[in-house]
Amino acid sequence: LNNPAAGFLGQGSIGGFEGNVTVTHPITGEFLFATDGNVVYKASTGLQATGSAVGGNGSSGEAAAVIPDPNGILGRNFLIIGNSASNTTGSIRMAKYDLQTNVVSGVTSILSGGINEALEVIPHTNGTDYWILVSTSDQKVKSYLYSKASGFNSTPASSTDVPDLAGVSATAIAQYSFISWDPRTPGKVLIARHNKVGLANFDPSTGA
Question: What's the pTM?
Fold first, then answer.
């Protein structure tokens, strides 16, 4: 991280070594901030954000995701999503982040327990809302809506069976989970668990 005042790179320490997220300006490409799902560092100063820790685990394979806050100022206000799973199932945490003031606030648990290390966010086709996809301990991948109008909806919009491999430990089940989406192929989601990889259909207008 750039710290002009000190004149060196590397101020502070992101604890994550598996699922860090960096956020850049969509037009200029400027590096804005980074997070491991627990702490946040502002790129222009290298300073750690003040306020609460988000609660994600830096050792989670997909520890963090970031979306613009639909009810905030574009380019200033963000929602940090942290995954606390690591070797065992965990929960999904969410917090507000103000880039201008470098403050994290409003931390809450949006999904409590039973979450594996996989996490993805996908934009809704309406341009304001988002889908949050997770892998769960009941052998499913579920999508949840975060909307500008009503926030997080804890009722899954969809649920896809992804069976565990027979004889695999609960630790491995939690660890070896991965979800990935590419905007170049918006109708598909890549899902990995253990030694299996699958490509599932996904409709960003419905979350199914």
Answer: 0.89
Residue 162 tokens read as 């992804």
Q: What pLDDT, in 10s, does the model give residues 20-79? A: 899 998 888 899 999 999 999 999 999 999 999 999 998 898 999 999 999 999 999 999
CA dist., res. 70 & res. 80, Å (int): 13
Smallest CA-to-CA distance from 63 within 87, 98, 41 is with 87
Question: In which residue are the tokens 């896809």 written?
Answer: 160
Q: Rounded distance, CA 137 to CA 113, Å?
A: 9
